[in-house]
């Protein structure tokens, strides 16, 4: 019995210590701005060592079903290899167009590698009523990896279970890369006007340098996870030489390399005029809040738009966080409440424009989880044209929203929402 | 002495289990096991145990891959719970292959069949020092974990070289986290 008491006390002590260390380490890197020092966005991104590539002007997709068709086209156009990673992957009538294409190309002998996060099996969106496992794709020759499986055998890995694979990308023949926020599941590839669908974005870059960088990272990551290893011969260094129209910086955050954290920090600290973003679930830790505060104190306008999330639990958690954002000086907008008999398809998009040249797209939300507990992929493109296109898109979204006042945010700050807020803070 | 060592192992194992890990650069970790053993002289009661393990896997060879470990086994006997023994030893993974018939045991991702044999010193609280031989014929490996089912073992008293226990570790898990 004495040993049991010792063990119990030890567990409690170590749990507390571990949680303390975990949260105290979850910090943005120190700002690069020293006394009187101001860097440009370029210099700031370079100062964090974020890999620089060149890209063309991307194709943009904001409709799930349209992206599904384009993804299938890209997959059928592949001649050598198809590499993809998504957070949520499951078979459904909507995702079949992409998944069947992957299976067909694998049957034809192409190298097809797909990573999905294990949480795909626990999805609680409308997908959960439609989805079927992707494991049957292995029969067709697809190399499938379920990241960090939620299995009984691994349950004692405890805190490791919080780490999730949240990247969404598709690489064709090591030359074309699509990235953004869409998964291969029922809701992502559904008609984005349908209440069961999602509003999101994917961007297709015909960029060998970007594709080779991501492919190299993918091979490293895959080989660390699977015995079914990939040869680095799949890389082709010759194709990276061509310079394209726009500079871009890449944050491929895996193995806890914190590159997305660096990217956000660089952009926010270097902004001169305006930051407009779709953060999705804006749960900021102390250091993220300080980063935003520094920008606002410099006179930078920071605007955020959050969705009207039909999932009440998430909506209430975002409402709880609203006061913190307003107190930082953020201009916070939310989509109008839908009419009584209408449901919004969820606005799942992640987008940030900085001043009038830079646009950040990818999988990363602006929140604690994306900075600390997820693999993420985001890219900053230096392009006035893309910035203008993104601003026009944001204007359209903001036109269907209204500004949140401090008074109403105060009414949302209720103690009974706190557990909900904390659950979404960590899990969202 | 044995109590202090046991507490240290428990402390390290629990702390490691609460630490985040990523798949890269995995050469050390912790593990758990559950099993039972019986005395061969029929005068001492059988016991069941829950074991905790700290291990290092420095090489990662495909064949004859050695690793070292320290185990602490918390046993139950006569409805009392006690730290039964501490072990320190080496495990030799005989081979590793993804072509095997046991994928049905862990169908989520591709696993490698990695049977092993182990040799360790075992200290019991009474000060007896024994050698323990064990085998894990059904052992599957992921890149950051291994799982063994029904691993038999025997212990030998080093004073007179007689068999003392036989037993089976019903299930063993080892995670590589560092």
Compute the number of strand runs of chain B. Answer: 10
Low-confidence runs of chain B (pLDDT<50, min 5 residues)? none
- Order of the strands making up the biggest sheet of chain B: 1-2-3-4-6-7-9-10
Poorly predicted runs of chain A are: 17-28
Biggest sheet of chain A: strands, sense, closure? Answer: 10 strands, mixed
Structural class of chain A: alpha/beta
Provide structural commentary.
The complex is a heterodimer of chains A (428) and B (178). In chain A, strands 1, 6, 10, 11, 12, 13, 15, 16, 17 and 18 form a ten-stranded mixed sheet that branches. In chain A, strands 2, 3, 4, 5, 7, 8, 9 and 14 form an eight-stranded mixed sheet that branches. The two termini of chain A are 40 Å apart. The model of chain A is unreliable at 17-28 (pLDDT under 50). Chain A has helices at residues 2-25, 41-47, 64-77, 96-107, 208-225, 259-270, 286-297, 312-328, 368-372, 384-398, 406-412, 418-427; strands spanning 52-55, 59-63, 81-86, 111-117, 143-147, 164-165, 169-172, 176-180, 198-206, 246-253, 274-278, 301-306, 331-335, 346-347, 351-354, 358-362, 374-382, 401-403. Chain A is of the alpha/beta class and 428 residues long. Chain B is mainly β and 178 residues long. Chain B has one helix and ten strands; from the N terminus they run H-E-E-E-E-E-E-E-E-E-E. In chain B, strands 1-2-3-4-6-7-9-10 form an eight-stranded antiparallel β-barrel. In chain B, a hairpin with a 6-residue loop joins strand 2 (47-56) and strand 3 (63-77). The model of chain B has no long low-confidence stretch (mean pLDDT 87). Classes of the chains: A alpha/beta (428), B mainly beta (178). Chain A binds chain B through residues 1, 3-4, 6-7, 10-11, 14-15, 17-18, 22, 118, 135, 145-146, 149, 151, 153-154, 156-160, 162-163, 221, 224-228, 254-256, and chain B through 7, 10-11, 14-15, 17-24, 32, 74, 81-83, 96, 98, 106-112, 141, 143, 145, 147, 173, 175, 177.
Write a short abstract of this structure.
Chain A has helices at residues 2-25, 41-47, 64-77, 96-107, 208-225, 259-270, 286-297, 312-328, 368-372, 384-398, 406-412, 418-427, and strands at residues 52-55, 59-63, 81-86, 111-117, 143-147, 164-165, 169-172, 176-180, 198-206, 246-253, 274-278, 301-306, 331-335, 346-347, 351-354, 358-362, 374-382, 401-403.
């Amino acid at each position: 019995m004495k040993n049991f008491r010792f063990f119990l006390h030890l567990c409690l002590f170590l749990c507390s210590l571990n949680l303390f260390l975990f949260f105290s380490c979850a910090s943005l890197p120190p700002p690069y701005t020293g006394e009187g020092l101001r860097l440009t966005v370029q210099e700031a991104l370079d100062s964090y060592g974020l890999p620089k590539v060149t890209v063309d002007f991307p194709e943009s997709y904001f409709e799930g079903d349209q992206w599904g068709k384009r993804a299938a086209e890209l997959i059928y156009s592949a001649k050598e290899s198809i590499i993809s990673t998504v957070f949520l992957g499951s078979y459904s009538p909507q995702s079949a167009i992409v998944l069947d294409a992957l299976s067909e190309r694998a049957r034809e002998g192409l190298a097809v590698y797909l990573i999905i996060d294990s949480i795909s099996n626990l999805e609680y969106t409308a997908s959960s009523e439609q989805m079927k496992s992707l494991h049957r794709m292995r029969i067709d020759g697809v190399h499938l990896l379920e990241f960090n499986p939620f299995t009984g055998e691994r349950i004692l890995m405890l805190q490791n279970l919080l780490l999730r694979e949240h990247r969404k990308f598709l690489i064709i023949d090591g030359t074309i890369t699509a990235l953004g926020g869409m998964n291969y599941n029922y809701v992502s590839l559904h008609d984005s006007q349908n209440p069961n669908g999602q509003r999101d974005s994917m961007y297709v870059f015909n960029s060998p340098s970007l594709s080779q960088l991501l492919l190299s990272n993918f091979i490293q990551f895959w080989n660390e996870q699977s015995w079914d290893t990939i040869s680095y011969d799949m890389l082709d260094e010759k194709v990276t030489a061509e310079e394209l129209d726009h500079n871009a910086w890449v944050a491929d955050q895996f193995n806890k390399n914190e590159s997305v954290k660096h990217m956000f920090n660089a952009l926010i600290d270097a902004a001169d005029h305006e930051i407009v973003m779709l953060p999705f679930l804006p749960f900021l830790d102390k250091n993220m809040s300080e980063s935003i505060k520094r920008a606002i104190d410099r006179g930078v306008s920071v605007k955020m738009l959050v969705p009207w999330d039909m999932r009440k639990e998430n909506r209430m958690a975002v409402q709880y966080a609203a006061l913190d954002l307003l107190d930082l000086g953020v201009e916070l907008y939310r989509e109008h409440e839908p009419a009584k008999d209408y449901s919004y398809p969820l606005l799942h998009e992640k987008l940030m424009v900085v001043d009038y040249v830079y646009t950040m797209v990818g999988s990363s939300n602006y929140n604690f989880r994306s900075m600390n507990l997820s693999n993420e992929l985001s890219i900053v493109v230096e392009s006035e044209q893309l910035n203008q296109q993104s601003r026009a898109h944001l204007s359209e979204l903001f036109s269907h929203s209204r500004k949140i006042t401090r008074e109403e945010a105060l009414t949302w700050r209720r103690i009974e929402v706190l557990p909900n807020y904390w659950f979404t803070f960590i899990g969202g | 002495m044995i109590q202090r060592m046991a507490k240290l192992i428990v402390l390290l194992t629990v702390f490691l289990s609460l630490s985040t890990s990523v798949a890269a650069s995995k050469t050390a970790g912790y593990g758990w096991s559950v099993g039972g053993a019986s005395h061969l002289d029929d005068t001492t009661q059988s016991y069941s145990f829950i074991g905790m393990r700290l291990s290092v896997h420095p090489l990662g060879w495909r064949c004859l891959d050695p690793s070292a470990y320290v185990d602490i086994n918390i046993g139950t006997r006569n409805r009392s719970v006690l730290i039964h023994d501490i072990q320190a030893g080496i495990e030799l993974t005989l081979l590793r292959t993804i072509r095997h018939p046991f994928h049905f045991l862990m169908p989520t991702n591709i696993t490698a069949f990695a049977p092993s044999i182990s040799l360790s010193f075992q200290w019991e609280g009474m000060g007896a020092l024994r050698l323990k031989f064990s085998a894990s014929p059904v052992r599957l490996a992921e890149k950051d974990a291994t799982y063994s089912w029904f691993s038999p073992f025997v212990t030998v008293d080093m004073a007179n070289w007689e068999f003392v226990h036989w037993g089976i570790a019903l299930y063993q898990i080892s995670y590589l986290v560092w």
